[in-house]
Amino acid sequence: MTDISLVARLRTSVDRLFTAGGPLAPIVAAGRRRLRVDTRALAAMRILLGMTLLVDLVHRAPGIEKYYTNSGVYPLAVHEATYTQFAGLSIHALSGSLWFQGLLFIIAGLFALAFVVGYRTRLVGFCSFVLLVSLHARNPAVLNGGDILLRTLFPLALLTPLGERWSIDAARRGTYRATVMSAATTALLAQPLVVFTQNAVLKHQGETWYAGEALQIAFANDVMTVWLGNYLSAYPTLLTTLNWGWVTLLAGSTVFLLLTAGWLRAAVALVYIGAFLGMIPTLMVGLFPLVLTASVLPYLTTPFWQTAGRLLPETIQPQSPTSRLGGEPVEHRVWRALRRRGHGRGVDYLTAYRQSLLTVLGMVALVFVLVYGIGHVADYEPPYEAEATAVLDQSWGLYAPNPSDSYSWYVVEAELENGSSVAAFGGSLSFDRPPDAAQTYTTFRERKFMSPVDSGGQDGVIARSYADWACSQAADRYDASIRSVTVHELTQESPVDGAYPNDPYQDTVIQRSCNG
Known about the structure:
By secondary structure, this protein is of the alpha+beta class. The protein has helices at 2-18, 25-35, 39-60, 64-68, 76-81, 98-117, 121-138, 145-158, 168-173, 183-204, 214-218, 229-232, 236-251, 253-258, 262-277, 288-296, 302-311, 330-340, 344-375, 385-388, 444-455, 461-478; strands spanning 37-38, 179-180, 406-416, 421-423, 482-493, 505-513.
């Protein structure tokens, strides 16, 4: 009895510390304010993530045959021999046929549309995630950091009530919560902080970012810059200023985003969003700007959404779906029918079990983000790191520790049976420096794919497959027998100071006979 009384008194004392009127109550209240997420921010995140999935599918669509079928550069035989950490994870790998890949793209698009409008949000979101992982696992060679961040952020978001507002689910439910706080929403808030802070630490290991020089080097890389980015290298003072601003946003993200509240937090989040969207007209980095923007949307606070609602014309404000779509959810009708038949206890158990499962998964997600995100730059190695992060990666080294001070492009030469040499994919065969090296790649995914082609060497599985595909493409284009193909890499030191320090140098990546 004494022990029980002691525990009870201790519990009462602890409760007094944290409850209203206690000495620690203001700290608890401030913490809860900073961890609460407006459900409109989650709805905006859902819409942007769904739109990002659609943009990704549309962007990949022209390369379906090239990157995902047996007639392309990465047939199933090559898929099975490489990137073994993704073995067994791809539905897309069930067939190398074009029609099958096209069908999966259409299904993924339909799920993404349903996710955008919030119809069965968590279910269709889970299906979208499964298809996303499957697509990534089918050809990991074309992925960049934006793809990996999307794959990591998406399941965290699914643990939160993304369909609470601005959704068909919300209209059918008839009620909503204004704000939410849980382990899952805390994990969602933590994920971008881990990305930014880890990247800041990795950049600090280099010599250029914290010297104000890195952006000048990055924007001299003609393969990475597009549109407006091609002109920024002429303004070194501006780039130095932007360099320091970017480093400040990365290194100070925990202070700027997590420790602020109200309008200040919303204003800071908008600064981050502006920086991310600024990548779109300047850098060829794929989905990164959209996914980074989605990751900080939960930091947009209630005052922002209230003001936005007042300023937006009613015609463009989110509208409730039609009454036809606003009917009561099927599961609610099922639960009610079961209760009428005397199964109320079972319904209560299932409801409580579902909520408990989400809570446990949210806690696991939070621990995962912190342990593996921090562990990547800390002195300790988290347990089972390779296995745990194979799909949900937590290494964020974009442009770290230093941006590359050179860039490469490739020339694929085909030798015809008559001994003449031509460009394998058409056009003129030229080894001169192009006026815009970014234009030598059809998309950033082609640039990513050429990296394992290059690094694999003459006998690399991916390199040989690429050369065989180039033989086939050249034969079709010239309607002639092709004796061999040679893939040349041309590397150019970036003109960081405005002038090219030398001519590009040439290296033969692979030379392969087309006659078996």
